[in-house]
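pasting for the record
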Amino acid sequence: MNIKTILFVIICTMWLVACDSTRETINTIEIQELINFEEEKPDTLQLISDVKDIKIIEKTFKKAREFGEVDNQIVPQYKIKLSDGEYYLWIDHTKTGTIANIKSRNMFYNIRASEEFKEAINYKNK
């Protein structure tokens, strides 16, 4: 083999590796109904892996607006594990919801709980 062939093979290999690394990775979001802040309802774990649903959920959380610090004793309906952390979610039939990071559960953020978001998390109005 001559030097040109070796260089061509190396360049093609690097190009293939670079293309492969830009491929979108599919992650999973875990959603669990809660009994209280520490106890999860049995048999309610949902694993959401649909890319469209993941994007809807992540976009909703990224657009959350800080509400402020509150000493809240109301049990959230859900615990949600995203790629960047775990959150409590309070949600009802209205167009808004509230989230708090599990590590700082007194700092609240408001979210827009659109029908699209509720469908993505399989919310059922109870």
